[in-house]
Structure formats: C-alpha cells, structure tokens
Amino acid sequence: MRKSGNPDEWKIQPLAEAALPVYSADPAAKISLCSPSIEIMPGGRIIAAFSQTGPGLRDLPGKKARHPRTGHWMQGRILVSNDFGKTWQDTHLFPFCGGRLFRDGHILYLIGESGNLQIIKSADGGLTWSDPSSLTAHSDAEGDFAEPPANIFVDERHIAMVWMRHTSPGVKGTAPQAAVFMRAARGANLMSPRQWTFGESPAGQERFAGHDAHVVRVTDPHHSLNSTETGTCHIILRPSQGHQGSVMAVKVSSQEDGSLKMEAGAALPLPGCHSRFQILFDPDTKLYWLISAQARTSFKTRRTEEPLLLQLHFSSGLSDWVFAGLLQTAETALQEVCGAIHGSTLYLAGTSGGKGPHRSSVGLAAVKYFRELVYP
C-alpha cells in the first residue's frame, strides 16, 4: 500500500546501500575484472575473489597460467575484509579463472578452471592459501570447462555444484555442452579428486546444457521437487535454448552402483532468468531468495537494450516468486552479481566501470535486515 503525500516518499526505492569499493584495476594496464565471488566466515570476515583477464595480464606479477587450448593468460585475486567491506587486504593470486568460494566448516575453498578444474584451500580464513590441486584431467581434445558454477550447494552431508563443459571445442558458433555435476561428503579431503563423485549429462543434449546451474534440495514432502531420498537433489538451470522466462529442473539421483543419473524435468517460471541470476537459501526463513535482472521486453520479436535493474524476490518453493523490491538503480547496478547471507544482512558483490564486458572495478553492497521484506 502506498503512502499519501509526496510521491518520493512512496515510490520504490533501492534496497541496497551504495557499493563499497573492493578493488580497481589500473586503467593503463589493459585488465578486465570478472566472475566475482564472496564467502563470509562465522566471525564476519568477508572474502572476495575474482578473475583478471586481458592483454595486460601477462605483464602483471604473481602466479598466472595460460589456457591449454586458447593460450589466454589466466589469473585470479583474493582479498579479505575484517570491517564489513570498508577496507580490504590483498592476500593471494591464483593461476586459474572463474573461481567460486565456499566453506566446509572453518576450511575455506576456491574452485575454478584452467581447462580442467582446479581447487585451493585456506585454513586461516583466506589469509594464506595452498597450491592448486587438479580435480579433472580432460585432454585438450575433450574440451574444457566453460563457466563457473552458479552456486556451491552445502548442506549437513554434502557439497555439490554443476559446471558446463565444452565437448567439441573445434565447433564454431554454439558449441555442444555437457552438464557436469560433482559432489563430495562434508569433512572429506576436497583437494583430492578421489573424494568427488562426478556425473555428466550426454554431450550436446540441449535440455541439460545451459547457464547459472544451481543445485537445490527440497525437503518439503508435498513439493513436486521433493529430494528427501538419500543422494537426490535437483539442478535448476537456464537452458541454452527455450523461453527466457523459465528455467529447467533436472533431477540428480544416486544409483546402486554409486553412479549419478540425470533426468530432465519440468520448466519453472523464474523472473529475470534471461540473464545471470543467483538463488540463495535462507535457513532462518526457509525461503529461497532470488537476485536477478528485471526484464521488460522479453516477448518482443526484436529486443531493445534495457537498463540493468537488479531485483530481489523470495519463494517458498522455487516456482511462485514474490517481489521484494529493486536492489539497485541502473546507474549504480553491479554486474555479474553474486550474493551471500550473514546475520541479518544480504551482501552483493559485482563488477562495475568500463564498457561492455570489460569491467574495471569490483564492489560490495549490502541489504540490511533483508528478512523484514517478507510480507504475507
């Protein structure tokens, strides 16, 4: 219900506070920043990671690598903040890209790709890191991993995620992809490939290929995506082909021989899934929170360029999404946004500055008391 009086008092206002700077690249260095990720330790320390790309990368100091197929230079950067994003300490450079942070107890991990999947870990909250360990060993001819996982799923038993892998790197245009699901037990040595169980979809089957592949486990016995069976979960992903307003639910189940089976299921509506999105599960409210971009021309035969308006929704069942508000205006919106929940605050990390896909800065914004946005 809107308030009476001045329209500025009742019109929708952005929920997120102004972004705090995390890191900015030297404009003369010809470096672009991408694929941001954040994780938050129980004590409140925020860890941020992102990739650095561009022709100037080879001249930068620190560990770096070259992609075995493309020859592109790769490097990532990790920073930590002990004052909720006001100041940052540069702690590590890693020689791969597309890194995603996650935590198993007090141990912090970052997984990414350099053609094959690489993982590093920290036992002191992101201050010092191990050398990379390879989790896969695909040859160049077998393709490479295409994008970072949309989320890292962690429950009381497992850690799981999904990657997309190019299966025919020589194909021009849209290359065939396979969805690679991987899962390990909590408390295991996650640096060892033997601790991970992998399941890969049939190569080139569009119903399994896509973007922003989230792993979810629905325990509601009355929900159509119920995953109470041991070893069962669902992948929610944006298909490579299909309507821009829906995502596909893919069931993953454990077989008697220990292998994993993928079965494509129903399409689910999801606002803003025409571009990158992230789903977070909040145990306190038992709600899913969706960070996505608002779409305004999805049914037009010729889409026009839209302002980037980040929006926030919540849902109890991944299908009926309730609008909570706009996160940021088009002028201040972060790109490639990822989120994390700590206490009563929803944190957003993303890139900004530059033109097109070439971003020069990483920022951190916050939505305080975000649970107060829930209404009957």
Quick recap:
With 376 residues, the protein is an all-beta fold.
Write up this protein.
With 376 residues, the chain is mainly beta. It has a single domain, classed as Neuraminidase (6 Propeller), CATH 2.120.10.10. 0% of the residues lie in helices and 46% in strands. It is globular and about 65 Å long. The mean pLDDT is 87.
Instruction: Figure out the total of helices.
Output: 0
The CATH class is Mainly Beta
Overall shape: it is globular
The largest sheet is: 5 strands, antiparallel
Please compute the radius of gyration using only Cα atoms: 20 Å
Q: Helix content range of the residues, please?
A: under 10%
Total count of strands = 26
CATH topology: Neuraminidase
Q: Helix and strand succession?
A: EEEEEEEEEEEEEEEEEEEEEEEEEE
List its traits.
globular, about 45% strand, 5-stranded antiparallel β-sheet, about 375 residues, mainly beta, Neuraminidase, about 0% helix, 26 strands
Which secondary structure elements does this structure contain, and how are they paired or packed?
Elements: E1 20-24, E2 32-40, E3 46-53, E4 65-66, E5 73-81, E6 89-94, E7 97-104, E8 107-113, E9 117-122, E10 133-134, E11 145-147, E12 153-154, E13 158-166, E14 177-185, E15 196-200, E16 210-216, E17 233-239, E18 246-254, E19 260-269, E20 278-282, E21 287-293, E22 310-315, E23 322-328, E24 335-342, E25 345-352, E26 361-368
